[in-house]
Amino acid sequence: MAMIPARPAPVPTSGAAYWVKKNLFNGPFNTVLTIVAGVIVAWSLFNLANFIFVEASWGQVWKNMKLFAVYRYPAEHLWRPLLVAGTMLGLMGAMAGVGKPRSIIANAYWSLMGFVALVSVVAVIFWPSVRFLWPMALLIGLAGFGVAKAFPQVVRGLSLAWGVWLVAGFLLLAGFGSGGALGRVPIRDWGGFLLTLILFTGIVPSFPIGIALALGRNSKLPAIKYFCIGFIEIVRGAPLIMWLFIASLLLPLILNVDANSLPAIMRAYVAITLFSAAYMAENVRGGLQAVPRGQSEAARALGLSGWQTTQLIVLPQALRAVIPAIVGQAIGLFKDTSLVFIVGLVDFFKVADLVSVQPESLLVTGGVKLEVFLFVAIIYFFFAYRMSIASRQLEKQLGVGER
Amino acid sequence: MIDAATATGPVRADAPAGGEKVIEMIGVNKWYGEFHVLKDIHLSVNKGEVVVVIGPSGSGKSTLIRCINRLEEHQEGKIIVDGVELTDDVRAIDQIRRETGMVFQSFNLFPHLTVLDNITLAPTRVRKWKKSKAEERARYFLEKVGIPEQANKFPGQLSGGQQQRVAIARSLTMEPKAMLFDEPTSALDPEVIGEVLDVMVTLAKEGKTMVVVTHEMGFAREVGDRVIFMDAGQIVEVGDPDHFFTNPREERTRSFLSKIL
Question: Is the C or the N end of chain A the one with fewer CB within 10 Å?
Fold first, then answer.
C-alpha cells in the first residue's frame, strides 16, 4: 500500500497572523478584552513617555552620576574602580573569546560591553574627570576578548586569573599608605553602585556554603544534621534586614573585637552571605531530592564511594535541576543589597534617597523623588533582567525540563 | 534433576560441586520492618554459571540480588562474594561492588555524561586506570554490545535498547567477576528486547558468571545453567532449564509457569 505523502495544511496553523487571531481575537469576549487591554497599555505607555521625556527634571540625576556610581570614593582615585571593572570585563571577554560566539558568557559579556560603551560615549562628552577612564575600561575588556581569540591557551590560567583579580582588585580599591596615587580609601567611603556590586559578590561564597549545608542536612551524623537544620531554619526565620542589624551588633561581640575595628561592609557582607547560604541550601536540597535514587545506586554498584557519587553524579544533576531557583535567588539578593542602609552603608539605592533630599533637589517643584527612583529602578531592571536571560540560556543549554 | 522443599528444611540452590564458588549465600534472611522478605536463602554460583531467578512480583527475587552487592542489607546469614564476606565493613562492600556489575531495570545511566564518560567514569576513579586505557576498553565493550558509534552521544539521545546495552558495557568495562541483572528487559519496548538479550546470550556463551532476574524464559532455556523459582521470599524449586520448564515438581511452580508460558 502506498504511503500518503505529506501535504501543506489548508489553513495556516502557525505564524504571527495565526497567533494573533487565535490568542487575541478568537471570540467576542477575548476581542473586547484585547481592545480594552490595548487601550489601557497604550495610554499608560503614553503617560510614562510623557513623564520621562517632557515633564521630568532629570537634572539632579544627571548631576549626581558620580554619587550614584561610587558615592564618596575620591574623584582623583576613580581610575581604580574603573581599572578593576575593566579587568573584570577583560576576563569575561577572555572567557567569551575562547568559547562559542553565542555562548551564555559571550552574550553576557557583549551586553555589558554595550552598556559600558554607551556610558563611555556619555563620559567622553560630558564627564571630564572620567572621560578617558570609561573608554579605558572598554578597551581592556576588548583586549581580553582579542587576546583569548588569538591565544586560546590562556583559558588554562583563567581560574587563577579570577582569583588574582579578586584579591588584587580589593587591594587596589582599598589602597595603601597615606597619600599619592595609591593612597588608602577607607572602606566606609565605598558606596553607590560599586558597593552594591561588591555586596552582590556575597552570593559566590554562599554557593559552596549552601551546598555544604544541604549535604550536611542529609548527613547521618546527628551533630552535623541538626546543626545544619537549625542554622537553615533560624536564618530563614527572620528577614534579611534583621540579620543585617544583628550582624552589625553581634559580630564584633562574637569575634571579641572592638566594634569599630570591623568595617560595616564586612558585617553586612557576612550577613548577606550566610542569609543567602541558608536559602541556597534549601534550593539544593530540593534538587538533591529530584535526583532519582537509581542514580546513586548505579554509582555505588560500580564501586564509586559515597563522596564520589555525591560529587560526580548526584550534585551535578541536583544543581542542574534547580538553576531557575538559584538564579532567582541571585536576582533577589542583588536587589536585597538595598537593605544595607540599615547599618549605615550607602549603596546605590540609598544614594538615590540622599540625592532626593539634597538642597538642590528640594528646589525643584514637586521634588525629584520620582526621577531619581525611576533611574535606580531602570538600572536594577537592566541587570536583573540580564541575569534572567542568562539563566534561561543556561537552562536551555543544560536541557533543564527536557527528558 | 530437581530439588524441592523437603521436610528437612529450605530448598538449597547449591552450585554443582567441583566449581569455584563466586557467590555464596548461606542462610540469608532479610526483614523490612516486620515483613520477612527473604527466608532462609541458600544459594551458590560457580564461576561461569548462568543462574536465572524467576518468580511473581513481590517474591523477593530483586531483593535477593540487591543483597549481593549491598544495595540491600541482610539481617541474618552470610553472603560471600569472591571470597570476601559482605558485612558492614565499607572496604569489604566496596571491594565486592568492584567485582560485581549490576544492570538495572531502569538502566540508570548518568544523563549528564556522554556514553563514553558513563563507561570510563568508574574504571578511572575506582580502578584508577589511565584515561587512555579506560577509553580503549570502553570502546571495546561498546563494540561488543554493538553500538560503537554512540560513544559521544548522551543517554537521552539513545533508544531504550541502546541505553541498556550501554549500561551493560558500563558494568563490563569494570571487568567484574560476576554480573547481576535485575529484570534488564522489563522496561523495554518489545521490539528492542531482542537486541539486549542477544548481548546477554553472547556474554553467557563466553563463560561470564551471571545471575539474572527475568521473565524472559527463552533466555533461561537457551543459556541458563540453573533456574531458581522464588515465591513469598523463599526458594521454592531449583533445576536445570530442560526439566524445569517441562516438568516442574512444585504446585506453586507449575501454577506460576502456566500463567506466563
Answer: N
